[in-house]
Amino acid sequence: MAEKGRISVNTENIFPIIKKFLYSDHDIFLRELVANAIDATQKLQKLASMGEFNGELGELYVQVDIDKEAKTISISDRGIGMTEEEVKKYINQVAFSGATEFVEKFKDQDTSSIIGKFGLGFYSAFMVSKEVEIFTKSYQEGAQAVKWSCDGSTEFEIENTEKENRGTTIVLHVNEDSEEFLEEATISGILNRYARFMPVEIRFGTEKITEGEGDDSKEIEQPKVINNTDPLWTKDPKELKDEDYLNFYKDLYPMSEEPMFWIHLNVDYPFNLTGILYFPKVKNDITLHKDKIQLYSRQVFITDNVEDIVPEFLRLMHGVIDSPDIPLNVSRSYLQSDAQVKKISNYITRKVADKLNELFRDNREDYEKKWESIGLFAKYGMMTDDKFFDKGKKFLLLEDIDGKKYTLDEYKSLISENQVDKNDNYTFIYTTDEGLQHSYIEGAKRKGYNILKMDSMIDSHFIQNVEHKLEQIQMKRVDADIADKLVEKDEETKHELTEDEQTKLVELYKKALGNENLELKVEALSAEESPVTIVKPEFMRRMQEMAEMQGGGGMFGMGMMPGSQNIILNGNNALIARILKEENEAEAHKLARHTYDLALLSQNMLKGSDLTNFINRSLELV
């Protein structure tokens, strides 16, 4: 006779459920039920290995079936099974963990392969079911099979039944709102996402294969195994070849280019962590490469959102992290404060830094060839993680416009004679656009300066980071000042113009340009420097760029602020002297306007009608 009763749900044990099962994706139910089936299978294997079970194990696998007509999904295993008492204990008492008790009982044995907390994940079945049935038979000799059923309320029914083999079959009677889960493609997609690397064979559907050769060949149908029970990260790195790692990467990311290199993680103390992290070929758009790391717990896929588990810059890497020590389905604030998560994060950061340093040290030539991608990754890491910055100083490379690459120490040595200012600061001069800033580059080269290429999408942020964290280094874009003043020295160039001539020159330009408010300054520069130069002071330009990134020039309207650019008149230039001496005022104004437009052109600031007028005037002057 069937026994009826009420499922025990109370305030004390409902909170773990709330934490663990407020899922946004209903398809998670299949992961939980399959994981429980694998858990039950591994428990039996463990008992057999310890001599606690002496029967025949036979074929051990998990079977998933759908029946569209009956509108059911079934998940079956040949694992440990349950007695009636165990069903009452583990199913009826919600949030009582069978796995926890099992681990405690055999705490002196290796129970690391047990996935879940049996009994918890089971209730996710009701997200898609109007009724759930359990048919189970314990591995224990002479055990009676039992059937348990529940319609989603707190009431259940349990009775004896007939079942030939040990193990458990869970039958979900799918509700009308969830009938998409009765489609083979849907179930196959869920299993491929969550179960493709689970440690026990999972069968779903069938496939046809050809057996034999030639005339003796025949096509047969066999169960389709959807998972790889022995994924690469679970193997000994010493047994693996480069080809193995590359093939696994193609399996994970079939549309991606080959990775540059990889790290095989394998540690069991003070936490358990395995996995493989790949360095992809990073393009300028970092967002295309982010969030490709898959998180597993004992080969069960959990998420590809690892933002609270690994540092920001490591999210550029691809691959797999597998750790049972990362708490699942908990709040972000909990993850961020969890000591074990912090240890894992620090460990991965250190391993990545050590790998980059090893690559740089062992094969610098190859490292330099890959620097375009490695550089984005390394700079991103150094910007966002202080510990990584300290390690990164050893393998960071600075590239100049001639394509030569230097470490920080090598570069400081290179420029020590010519680019150290009066305050003993090393001046790193850089360009963000060689074509646009060509005239400024040429001026700096005439001074014997070396110019770095800083044209990646993160370099503007990296520049400020370097200045902030390294002493006696200042970064100046090549157009931040006239070449003579990029590196501040005590030297002074003699003025060819008197103070009266300088005043007259400024007034002439203001009148020629029709703007009395222009900030013009006469400087004593080298004679070969341009007659007029427009420079954007480093500090003001950075402030303006930051404001523009925040939208609309920022609250202070940085784009319109005076001093965001300086107009420098070269008092020692021959053309300036000619303009000053020109008796025909109209001609003097024409030449002044033309030299100013040339300065605008060099900064890509000459546009529209001003550009048209400049072209027409050039033709006249020719």
Automatic annotation (TrEMBL):
<protein>
    <submittedName>
        <fullName>Molecular chaperone HtpG</fullName>
    </submittedName>
</protein>
<dbReference type="InterPro" id="IPR020575">
    <property type="entry name" value="Hsp90_N"/>
</dbReference>
<comment type="similarity">
    <text>Belongs to the heat shock protein 90 family.</text>
</comment>
<dbReference type="InterPro" id="IPR037196">
    <property type="entry name" value="HSP90_C"/>
</dbReference>
<dbReference type="InterPro" id="IPR001404">
    <property type="entry name" value="Hsp90_fam"/>
</dbReference>
<dbReference type="Pfam" id="PF13589">
    <property type="entry name" value="HATPase_c_3"/>
</dbReference>
<keyword id="KW-0143">Chaperone</keyword>
<dbReference type="Pfam" id="PF00183">
    <property type="entry name" value="HSP90"/>
</dbReference>
<dbReference type="InterPro" id="IPR019805">
    <property type="entry name" value="Heat_shock_protein_90_CS"/>
</dbReference>
<dbReference type="InterPro" id="IPR020568">
    <property type="entry name" value="Ribosomal_Su5_D2-typ_SF"/>
</dbReference>
<keyword id="KW-0067">ATP-binding</keyword>
<dbReference type="InterPro" id="IPR036890">
    <property type="entry name" value="HATPase_C_sf"/>
</dbReference>
<keyword id="KW-0547">Nucleotide-binding</keyword>
